[in-house]
Amino acid sequence: MSPLSVQACASKHSSSFQRFACKANYNKKLLTPEQRAHLDVVLVSPRNPLNIGAAARAMANFGFSRLSIVAPYAENWMEAKSAVGAPELLRHAKVYATLAEAVAHCTLVLGTGSLDKRKPVQRIETLPVAATWIRQTLEMATATDALTRSSKPHVALIFGSEKHGLTSDDLTWCHALTVIETHDEQPSMNLGQAVAVCLYEISRIPHTNEAVPAFSSGTATPQPDTEQLDRLAGLIEETMEAVNYSTRGLRSANGSALRILLRRMMPGDADVRRMMGFFRRILWQLRRNRSNV
After folding, report:
1. What value does the mean pLDDT take over residues 173-190?
2. What is the pTM of this model?
3. From CA 112, how far away is CA 110, in angstroms rounded?
4. Coiled coil: which residue ranges (predicted)?
5. Same domain (yes/no): 171, 243
6. In Å, how far are 40, 43, 160, 163 from 157, measured between CA atoms?
7. Domain for residue 234, yes or no?
8. Looking at the structure, do residues 193 and 286 belong to the same domain, yes or no?
């Protein structure tokens, strides 16, 4: 064999090896199965079954399987033909009447949407920054030596209706709003495409020269889930009414404001327990004083 032939043969084998190595390492760049098991994709009031199917397919592309549907418009959404390769994922999707029920077990809830015609009061993060926040939370979920099984963090990524996106009330359940940067002339994205873009960014390992913000101190501090925060908010509302700070007619507005405030504060699990004890003591004292009058 001539030197030229040997060189060509070596080049061919080298190229084949590189392709094999690339394929062998491809899936290793994704999150681990345990990490992916702690992320819920939540679709709020989706209108088109094809979009639900496209979202399910995007989830399957990146190995995610926990899909929640809140108050869907169509009854036949489970039969969406656009869920290529993901029919089982659709069949195992959970359906909830309200967003509060869907995210009750979650310690981090991020909404998605554009800032077009919207002035949210929530914290706003770009998708790369939000993805880093999510990855760090999912990594903590696997820290079994530092966390008990009951306190492992869960993340919910929320997508709104195709017609109007997430409402102001929907956003009160979110710790922050993440924005996909799009062209000004067409700021909104198709639901399935938005899910795909977000999950790709979450799954992607940042390059070493990228700035990676840290959202935790490195210690696995337990965080309260949505249900715990809502119990605290309810107790604060009772206290506000007991001291005539507000009437029952303002309870809805107060509830929304408290949900936003508590998520801005990001209190730890221990902080929530202390505040619960504090407000319970105030209520007990107020009721005791009234009974003695």
Report:
1. 87
2. 0.80
3. 7
4. none
5. no
6. 6, 9, 10, 18
7. yes
8. no
